[in-house]
What does this fold into?
Amino acid sequence: MKNINILTLDAVSIQVVGNKTLAEGISYASQLSHLGQSEEFMKEMIDKNFDFISKKHFTYIESIDLNPTYNFIKRIFNNRENFLKQSNNLAAYLYEQSIHPNIKCGEFYVILATCEYMGEVHECVILLKNERKEPFLSFESNGSVINVKTNYGMGIKNLDKGCIVINKDELSGYVVYTVDKTNYGADAHYWIESFLHVEDSKDDSYNNSLKMLSACTSFVRELKKTENDIECAKIASTMNDIFSSGISIDKQTLIEKTCHNDKHKELLRGLLKVVGADDGSFPETIHPELNAIKRRSLTKLNTIKLGNDFELKILNPEGTIVTGKDDITGMRYTTLFYK
It folds into this structure.
């Protein structure tokens, strides 16, 4: 179930932002746009394109107050009369970042809306950029003949880039959710990094679960280079059990439950530090998020390949497994003990 619901779209401006390197320019909005019957379409499009899983917030190199996008949106929240002016400022700043030759000219929507977030009603600013046009058929009738035309526009599921900024936690950079379906090439970073300047929120259990899972995945892979495959698979199974239990866990407990010696503990502790799970901002305990577990599962790491003929998946790390080599045939064997 999503934790945000767009209630109303209160003000909309539409600009056309081109590629600066190609000198395509900007078509600024001179007045607000009226969506009319298209409001429900826009709300449905937002709902279908945003997953609202990974919470982010605005940031900047030295101070968040130097982030242009953050400041333009802050001025909208502080005074609705500034909406059109700040919408055009956002379009101008986006144009300055549109310098990669692969970035396409497209419509840039700035929307002031009301939403329900975590059971509370808040203002929010929605930024949408559409660069791809989807063909569709339209029909015209003069009473006796029906004509068919091919038109091009934005489909309900093909939003290229988006951002929702909820007017909450202003001093921390607001609550931000993004979508960016241009995830290839050098142009993939201009929306998230160059224009928005956002980063994962450190108090978000989804992002923190991903960090710990990433460290655990790297840990098992490193162990596979030097340790017994069966022991590595059992450790991966133990980690899966911990994250799938739905019970909150802290970093130290994770290390104690999965590492069998000081060398392993030091390795996992170092990998947790690499992913940022060992700085002062990481919470003492996290609640594992199911969406994070689905995205970065350890299940493939608890599978042992036995030659070219068999794969053995370890589901119970306490299970007894014995391996050896047959003196007569010279082949290896695996014995499983079970009740």
